[in-house]
Specification:
Layout lengths: L1 H27 L14 H9 L3 H23 L4 H22 L2 H16 L35
Helix pairs in contact: 2-3, 3-4
């Protein structure tokens, strides 16, 4: 019985001995560089591609996004209740939107408005309004009310 315990203990010590160096190697490994522009990537570059921005416009928009990011960071660090912070964040977003629109030409602004509308509708941009159900395009899904159709103006 004692020899079995010693054997199990020895196996555990060896397993831990082999695991520690590999864990340390993972911790010491260099991390991949962060994407420019935060978690969403480089939004200015995306807008440059989709809206056909000039280099000067792209630089202005990068500055606007950087200012927005700083304002949001300051707001998160600030003391206060959640609702007031939420309202302040909405205001920062609206201000950023207005600043970006001021940089764009009329044609670019029209494209931007279309992109914003599609984003409101969700992925794909063709979301049905809430409550509107119907058969799916693949034929699966609700087909209408179950049971016999209601009687039309039956006399009583």
């Amino acid at each position: 019985m004692k020899s079995t315990r010693k054997y199990i203990l020895a196996v555990c010590v060896l397993a831990i001995g082999f695991a520690v160096p590999s864990i340390q190697a993972q911790e010491d490994a260099p991390r991949p560089p962060k994407k420019e522009g935060g978690p969403r990537g480089d939004r200015a570059a995306m807008l440059k591609e989709k809206l056909g921005l000039t280099d000067a416009q792209t630089e202005q928009i990068k500055k606007i996004f950087a200012d927005q990011q700083e304002a949001m960071k300051a707001l998160r660090e600030k003391e206060g209740d959640r609702e007031s912070k939420k309202d302040a964040m909405k205001q920062i977003h609206e201000d950023t939107k207005a600043k970006i629109d001021a940089v764009l030409t009329a044609e670019q602004k029209a494209k931007m408005d279309t992109m914003r509308e599609k984003r409101k509708d969700g992925p794909g941009g063709d979301k049905k309004p809430k409550g509107e159900k119907g058969p799916k395009e693949d034929g699966k899904g609700p087909k209408g009310p179950k049971g016999p159709p209601p009687a039309e103006d039956a006399e009583m």
